[in-house]
Amino acid sequence: MIDAEVLARATEEVRRATGDKVIAEMFRRSMAENLPAVAERLPDGTTFVLTGDIPAMWLRDSAAQLRPYLLLCADDPALQDVLIGVLHRQLEYVVLDPYANAFNREANGAGHVTDETEMSPWVWERKYEIDSLCFPLELAYRLWRITGRADVIDERFRAAALAIMELWTVEQDHEERSTYRFQRHDDVPTDTLVRDGRGRLTRPTGMSWSAFRPSDDATELGFNVPGNMFASVVLGYLQEIATEVLHDEPLAARAKELKADIDDGIAQYGIVEHPEHGRVYAYEVDGFGGSLLMDDANMPSLLSIPMTGYASADDPTYVATRGLLLSSTNPYYYSGAHASGIGSPHTPPDQVWPIALAVQGLTSTSAEERQQLLELLRDTTGGTGQMHESFHVDDPTVFTREWFSWANAMFCELALVHAGIR
Question: What is the pLDDT of residue 403?
């Protein structure tokens, strides 16, 4: 799905930058195999993307899996067609149910049909995550800017944008305005919401409430700060598209107003004072003064703030937050004989995620750190040559998910950025 000459040139750039033939070959193989393994062009011109080893399409994962291909698609019209097809399928799904995070290829009723929520035959899973709605807006903006093609933004985009803004506005006051409920009775606490499916009590902050994190684990405090940061950024993108492409000033004005609300909420509630690290961003807050200082490997995360575009890598609050996240103050930072990095409550203790290691490199201002992290990822595949969901810091042969498409994509993006391809 990627032009052979485009890939060959990129692979040579990676080899030159890293001085490592193994890293270059891992990059080449992943780029050549990752997208064809998960993407299917449908008769209507859209593209269905498996999340990897699950037969469903996650809004978040399907966009994140495309990130390295976006960096190389400017000179590859056929690849552009595939990527635009992914966007258009995402937009159609959003209009079907903006609360859903994962969808079926067709209305076949597959997935978590016993969950207590408003399921549809199209929906594989209906765990509402604010970031799931950010990724299609970001993908649309990047494709529009990279390709300049008129077919990127169409009426599907307008309909999806309206649905997203309506939901985010409702969820600014989850207690009084939202009808969303979710319960799953599988004895895994992070798979369900407390209070009969409403989640823990929150008070309005200006931010928009989220039921689940990018890990698909339930939020503890309701307002996920990195998710709201991402929402703020993509609302800026939406405002730009509404003005320059759709010529819809009311849509642009609405995006601007919602962005301002979220930004004010982050500034007022999302920054806390830590005795050792100073002013840092919280991972979650509840509006009552409660805050959670941690990070999760899945992005958007606090570590990924410069990637999502909310703040620069040298922003003082981000620098302080980064110091906290990459230390024992973060309860999900693990260190062992083979690796140190951020894991997740979604996987066992002492397991680091390649996605988090890639994000650490992609947000670093040091070429030396990026090189070290690429070499670490090279050396911790457990002999498989593939990125996993997570691996044990003392034994990389102990891992979860032998093949994880999103993690492979993040490794490739790190390799490209290290090679100067941004």
Answer: 87
Q: Cis omega before residue 300 (within 30°)? A: yes
Give the position of tokens 């993006």.
Answer: 413
Nearest to 49 by CA among 70, 66, 71: 66
Using alpha carbons, select from 228, 303, 237, 240 the residue that is nearest to residue 270. Answer: 228
- Give the chain's length: 422
Residue in 205, 207, 185, 181 with CA at minimum distance from that of residue 195:
181
Provide the phi-psi class of 247: left if phi over 0, else alpha when psi is between -120 and 50, else beta: left
- Looking at residue 54, what is its pLDDT? 86
For the sheet containing 395-400, what is the strand order? 351-352, 390-392, 395-400
C-alpha 255: how far from its chain's center? 21
| Dist CA 369 CA 346 (whole Å) | 26
pLDDT band at 418 (very low <50, low <70, confident <90, very high): very high
**What's the burial of 43, exposed, middle or buried (CB within 10 Å: 0-12/13-18/19+)?**
exposed
Q: Which CATH class is domain 42-329?
A: mainly alpha
Residues β-bridged to residue 123: 103
Other CB atoms within 10 Å distance of the CB of residue 376: 19
- pLDDT, residue 51, reads 85
| Whether the Cβ atoms of residue 2 and residue 31 lie closer than 8 Å to each other | yes
Instruction: Classify burial at 110, counting beta carbons within 10 Å of its beta carbon; exposed 0-12, middle 13-18, buried 19 or more.
Output: middle
Instruction: Residue 160: name the closest of 224, 87, 225, 230 by CA.
Output: 87
Domain ranges of the chain: 42-329
Residue 279's pLDDT band (boundaries 50, 70, 90)?
very high
The model's pLDDT over 219-251, given as tens digits with 9 standing for 90+, comes to 999 999 999 999 999 999 999 999 999 999 999
Distance set, CA 9 to CA 31, 179, 378, 413 (Å): 12, 51, 21, 15
Residues 215/344, Cβ–Cβ less than 8 Å: yes
pLDDT at 52: 73
Residues 84-139: pLDDT tens digits? Answer: 999 999 999 999 999 999 999 999 999 999 999 999 999 999 999 999 999 999 99
Radius of gyration of the chain, Cα coordinates, nearest whole angstrom: 20
